[in-house]
Every structure is written in C-alpha cells, then in structure tokens.
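Appendix B, Record 12. Input sequence as logged:
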Amino acid sequence: MSHVLMPLPRRAAALVPVLPLVAVVALLALPPAGDGAGPADVVSALVVGYCVLRLLRERRRPLSPRAAVLLGLPVVGLALAAMGAGSPAAGIGGMCRYLQIFVLVPATVLVLLRGRADFRVLAWSFVGLALWQGAVGVHQYVTGTGASYQGETIRAVGTFGAQDVMGMATAVSLGVVCAAGLALGRAPLRQRAAAGACALVLMLPLALSFSRGAWIATAVTCTAQLVLAGLRRALKVGAAVVASGVILVGGFGVGTAMLQERIDSITQVTDAPDQSVVDRYTLWAAATGMWREHPLTGVGLKGFPEYRDGHATLALSSGSDIAGAGETYHKQALLSPHSMYLLVLSEQGLVGLLALAGSWLALLVCAVRGLLRVRRRGPGLDCALVACGLLLWLLTDFVYGDIGGPSTVLTGVALGLTAWWALSPGERPDAACRDEVPGRLEEAVAR
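Logged structural output:
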C-alpha cells in the first residue's frame, strides 16, 4: 500500500514552485483592504523573495542573457524617469511599481515555472479567478448591488468595488483568453470541453462589466487565437460563439437597452461621444502635450497629475462618478490618461516608451515564433495560444487603459506566462518533457 501511495507526494511536490504564483492570483478573489498594497501585491513581493532565495540555494543562473535583456530593458527608461520625478518619494514609489509589474514578477514566473504542466496550472488559476469574479459580478447586476452606471447600480465589478471598475473586466477577460487557448489546444477532449464552456460562460459577466476597452481587446485576442489555431477550428468555435450569443441575448434577455447603447457608443466616438469619451480624448491630448515639452525623458514618474491641468482643455470634467458596490457617491479625480502608451510617453518620454514597448514586442515575436513551431505537430499548442493571447490582450487593452488598482498584479503574472513560453522552451530542451514526468513516475513505481 505504501508503494502505491508514493507517487502522490511526488506529484504534489512537483507543483510546489508554482503554488506561490497560484496564491497571488487566488488572493485577488478577496475584496481590497484599502487604497494601499493589497494581499496579492504583498504576496507577489514575498514570491519574488522566495525565488531569489531558491536561486541562491540552488546556485544557478536565474535568467538567460536574452531573457535578462528583454525583461530588463524597461529599467533604462524607468531610471531616467525616476530621476526626473517631482519628488524622491514619487520617483521611488513609481519605479518600484513598474519594476514589480513589468520586471520582477514576470522574471519570477519565468524562473519558477518548470514545464507546461506548471504553465497550465497557472493558466487554470486565471480561469478560476475569472469564474469567481464573474459570478459575483452577475449577482451584482441581477440584484442591483453593483457599481453605478447611468444612475443605476448594475455595473458588474466583482469584489474589486466601484473604485476599480476595470478590475473585474480585466480578470474576466484574461480568464476568457486563457480558457480559449486551453480549449484550442490538443489536451484530452474533456479538458478542452471544460475550457470552452468556461470561455462561453465568462462572456456574460464580461458583457455586464460595460467595459468597451475590455470588449475590444478580448474580441481581437480571441479572433487571433482562432486564426492561429487553424481555420477549421476557427469556424467551429465561431459558430459556437454566435449560438451562445443568440441564447444570451434572446433567451436570457442580456441585450438590455443600456448594453446596446454601450455597444453602439464604440462606433460613435467621433459623431456623438459621451462624456467618458470626451474626457479620454482630453487626457490623451494632455499627455501628448507633456511629451512635446519633454520628448526624451518625459515629466517624470507620477508626474501626469501635476502637469495635467496645464495641458488639458476645459472639456475635461471634474472626475468620474463613483457610487454603488458599497461606496457612497463621490467624484474620483482623473489622474492618468487612460492609455498605457500615453502614460509612459508623457512620464518617461520616447526613451521609456521604446524600452517598454520594445520589450513587449520582442516577447510577442518570440512567442509567435514558438507557436508556429508547434502548431502542426509539436506539443504545447495550448500554452502557446495562451501566452500569445495574454500579451496580445494587454497590448490592445493598453490603448484604452493603464495600470492601477489591485488587479494590476495580474498583468505581471500574465507577462510572466508569455515570457516563459517565449524565452524558456528553446533554451531548456527538457522543458518539453515535463508533462510526462508524473506518468513516468507512476510507471516506475508500478514496475
């Protein structure tokens, strides 16, 4: 009997390195404790420390030269922008946040993941978080306990609350991308069916988030995943998506007037824009104005709020309305341009934007090349689709949004998954065999 039970501890021990990363994702299911660092941020810092200690104990090189260059490239722009910040506290605080999300957490994910099995565990944790946040969001919409939207407390925001209305939309969207990638891979039929069902179910809370940017990014990303997976699959999944949309809109009445109006507003950004679109355009113009005055290094980290009023027109409103989901009505100041590219351009200049965006594009190129190698017969197609999809979603969403709030740590973990696929398999040939280790252990014990 003892020999039969031996594989279980070994299989459990094989998951130990990835469990801290899963904990970071899982802690985002909790309501935020305040305006400071949340539990997920604290645990992400502990995981980085754990990774450093693990590397010191094992005495191995943490990153390959290529990985070190691509992940370390953003440090150049950050260092220059930190020196130009309005105060040392702002420079240090801003640099720590950027390093956490775009350098340290992705590098930690890259080091701790040891194979495709670990990758899939972390991807499924994204799906699990999305299902939980989506369930809370749908309940908020049905019971009228969500964030305020056009005078009604129906906006699905999950546990993130009205202060971070994009939190649930981000978590659900990344869950959809992970589920779609897992469903389009070559896993057993039961796993692919479960992933596909999760992706379809998550469409409902995504719609009820009323987040146009998340809708666009998810549509672009899932379309790209379908195309990369193959035309035949694209047609089958496309038909399933259309059928589920008909059921949701016709059978469950999801197509409310407010939702239809929100969808129509995507194509009315120039003819009859609402105030949120006007504010966004005004903030974008202010960001480009800052960049023109400081083209190379920007106005400094966390400098956008200080320079905003000097570059914004009178069309900018006093702030966005915050109410519902446990919040009393108040105005939230618009302290960022709501575009990651323009935020980096205004605060870090061309140097910072080229360094950060260049790192992302290089990762995307490496990830797509890896996908093309395994698309026909190689193992890991699901991992490739998830990795490319996550980065593509972020690159698209960054046109309409930027980092901020408790959900931001998900960005770092998602970039880490992309970095692992883009940089790890080609440099560690044994990574392709990790999935077979548990099965081989069972066979060895049986013998």
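The first strand starts at residue 147 and ends at 149.
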